[in-house]
Amino acid sequence: MNILKLLKPKAVIDYVYEDNSVRQAIEKMRNHGFTAVPVIDREGQYVKALAEGDFLYFMLDNNIFDIRDLEHYRVSDIPRRVRSNPVSVTATVEELVLLAINQNFVPVIDDRKIFIGIVTRSDILQFCHVSLSDS
Fold first, then answer.
1. Torsions phi, psi of 76, nearest 5?
2. What is the DSSP letter of 21?
3. Under the phi-then-psi rule, with left for phi > 0, alpha for psi from -120 to 50, and beta for the rest, what region is 106?
4. pTM score of the predicted model
5. Is 35 helix (H, G, I), strand (E, B) or coil?
6. CA neighbours within 13 Å on the CB side: how many for 73?
7. Structural domain of residue 22, as residue ranges?
8. In 10 A of CB 104, how many CB atoms?
9. Distance, first Cα to last Cα, the chain
10. Residue 118 phi/psi, 5° resolution?
11. In this structure, what CATH number is given to the domain that contains residue 62?
């Protein structure tokens, strides 16, 4: 099956740029109720995904207790604790399932490494459930 049927395109999801301030990223996550967010560069290439814990550890490691101080830091300053691997648009559902075990969403890139969207864990599970039910 083509994974594009499960894709939430970049145009309908939220993401942050690696040169955004950490405060901007946290506020976007908070306003939308996200627990993780994809990070891309200005050319559109996928860089990483950051989770709430990444922000928390960054603040604790840098003794930051006031959200206003996060204006002085960029998203690129936050190290990845957990690698959130992207898949190619030609990936299989099986590849998605294996990555979704440890990720809330799987970032999808095209053959030029440009971020085109995500496939959520819940969409993968729903697809698997429907497929098993049809068998």
1. -65, -20
2. B
3. beta
4. 0.90
5. coil
6. 20
7. 3-134
8. 16
9. 15
10. -135, 160
11. 3.10.580.10
Short-list 12, 1, 28, 2, CA closest to 116:
12
Asked if 89 and 109 count as a contact pair (C-beta separation under 8 A), the reply is yes
Fill in the amino acid letter for 88: S
pLDDT tens-digit series, residues 121-133: 999 999 988 888 8
Q: What b-and-e string marks burial along 8-22, b requiring 16 or more CB atoms within 10 Å of the CB?
A: eebeebebbbbebbb
Total count of domains within the chain = 1
Please give the average per-residue pLDDT across 13-33, as a whole number.
Answer: 94
Return d(Cα 115, Cα 44) in angstroms, integer: 6
pLDDT tens readout for residues 38-75: 999 999 999 999 999 999 999 999 999 999 999 999 99
- What gap in Å lies between CA 114 and CA 80, rounded to an integer? 20
